[in-house]
Amino acid sequence: MNGLNTQRVCVLGGELRFLRTGQGPTVVLLHTLRTQLEYFMPLMRALDLGLEIVAPDLPGHGRSSAPDVEYTAQYFTDVVEKFLDALDLRRVLLVGESIGASIGLALGARRNPRLAGVIASNPYDYGRRGGIRRSSPLANVVFTAMTWPVIGSVVVRTGTKGILRKIMEGGVYDPRNLPSDLIDEMWACGNLPGHARAFLSLSREWKTWIAARAAYVDVELPITLVYGDHDWSRPEDREANSRVLRTARTFALENCGHFSCLDQPQQIAGLIWDEASRRGTS
């Protein structure tokens, strides 16, 4: 995964690394909790040519910096909003996975004029102490411990690459869809200055992602909701979003976990092409 021609931009006191490639309708990709822009490599290969792809590392993720702030849902939404401004991106189809999906819906609720539509795959807006705790017994123990004072700081700094991979496997339907080089890159980036603190803050701010759902009622953009049939969300979580996002198109992906862009990149690519052509994103 080395050799990507990435750029950097300063946003709200931090520095974001991002990939910008291709020509055509603009698609912005927002990754999941704990991953980074390399997460989207299978999807970008499936998309091939004909689109402008912009994919940032969110703050405290990948090779972006990790400002000393509270990593709430609002903070991430503010950063992405300013990122779109900094690059002067317009008529954007925003495609988000997990927290990236929730950020996209939150921006839609703000009626951000730069957005033309949102594809929200497995939005991360449910679960006591965070939905990732449902992924496996190991994740339940680790992420619960991270919410405890003192102990949480120890846990987030004493993990291993093997534990990281095991937790990530809880998000895919087929573990063979989890690239080893992605885990290697995530492990290396997780040890960058400030990233452990940022991830701990994000994990402890789980309530803010659930609270952000209240604003979805203000969304007027075209929305596509996507859920893997093995996503961590439960039927009641999905129905709650469908009730609020009344005009959203909803799709279920078979043989797909929380990380749909790893399990089913071709299907996500098809939804992107369909939405870009239907809405005339340009």
Architecture overview:
- There is one protein chain.
- This protein is an alpha/beta fold and 282 residues long.
- The protein has helices spanning 41-47, 73-86, 99-109, 137-146, 151-157, 161-169, 180-190, 195-204, 206-211, 235-244, 260-263, 265-279, and strands spanning 6-11, 14-21, 26-30, 52-56, 92-97, 115-121, 223-228, 249-253.
- The protein has a single domain, classed as Alpha/Beta hydrolase fold, catalytic domain (Rossmann fold).
- The longest helix has 15 residues, at 265-279.
- The mean pLDDT is 94.
Keywords for this structure?
282 residues, Rossmann fold, 12 helices, 40% helix
Question: What is the element layout, followed by pairings?
Answer:
Elements: E1 6-11, E2 14-21, E3 26-30, H1 41-47, E4 52-56, H2 73-86, E5 92-97, H3 99-109, E6 115-121, H4 137-146, H5 151-157, H6 161-169, H7 180-190, H8 195-204, H9 206-211, E7 223-228, H10 235-244, E8 249-253, H11 260-263, H12 265-279
Parallel strand pairs: 3-4, 3-5, 5-6, 6-7, 7-8
Antiparallel strand pairs: 1-2, 2-4
Helix pairs in contact: 1-12, 2-3, 4-5, 5-8
